[in-house]
């Protein structure tokens, strides 16, 4: 299990680190996109700030996942980004073929696995609040 945790931590952290840096210094060519997907990505880039914030959050989250000690926090930061990426790939890029499904499966499986292995860090987020207590 430690090997699987190590593998998912470094591959998921690496993916977010590389793609986060790519938002500032483009070195990965853009894959073919369907028209609606291209319009969506274009609108994110045209805002002038949202694309950079997304890249920064991906870099920070990827580094936190790499760290080992702060993996749970990195997963928490990247969770809404993963939901958006999976939605984008499955809804806007579904006509491209097989690669969007592979990336969606990888992001989902690795994120869920790493979060499950660190479930003790998340339990207090899902416990009910005790409003009857004083203080």
UniProtKB/TrEMBL annotation:
Pfam families: DoxX (PF07681). It is found in: Membrane. It is a multi-pass membrane protein. Keywords: Membrane, Transmembrane, Transmembrane helix. The chain crosses the membrane at residues 7-28, 48-66, 73-91, 97-116. This is DoxX family membrane protein. It comes from Leptospira stimsonii.
